[in-house]
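Comment thread on ticket #2218

A.B. wrote:
> Attaching the input chain for the structure job we discussed in standup.
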Amino acid sequence: MSRVTGKAVVLLSGGLDSATTLAVARDEGFECSALSFDYGQRHRFELEAARKVAQALGAIEHKIITIDLHAIGGSALTDDLDVPKDRPVDSAADEIPITYVPARNTIFLSFALAYAETIGSKDIFIGVNAIDYSGYPDCRPAYIGAFEEMANLGTKMGVEGRRIRIHTPLIDLTKAQIIKRGIELGVDYGLTHSCYDPDPETGRPCGRCDSCLLRVAGFREAGIQDPSGGGVV
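C.D. wrote:
> Ran it. Output below, let me know if you need it in another format.
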């Protein structure tokens, strides 16, 4: 099988999906530079998870960029708002929840785009998912396509004909399929963190937020034990 070689920027939150995305990019032959954000979110446990995942999966570099989305607020992840609990998993995508952070993926992808140009990379990976996506509008294929088009219109690389690609290897997969793919690629899900509202002292997942419930359902459907105990109280 032929191998793709080159540099890639991978957005890495420390969660299940982004860890799998990093593993996919590495498996495709990319040298991966991981990019995470300390953006004023409710907790920092995911950043420590991102550090561990980046190291375990062989990222050649891992940057954590600080931006202050808490100053804008408007989300339960960046403001003094309650995180929704105990919502049915099959209704999670029916409405845009209060855990949606305004324009977050646009902001993160813009930083990734700048980073990619700086290191000479034409490839950006993001772990968005259009099936188990919790109702976030910036996880849909149409959005990703529009951002890619903008990236090629508004960058030196794009104007010079070095087309930038936004890779979304998980976009059509269920959570169970994502987990199985990650296991095949050697992802240690015990290193990842998914909970929106963990215990502030221990980081123990609440087991009741949308992210925890999607994680539990995914591992259950995959028939695999979650090594982190994520989502289990």
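A.B. wrote:
> Thanks. Noting for the ticket: The longest helix spans residues 104-119.
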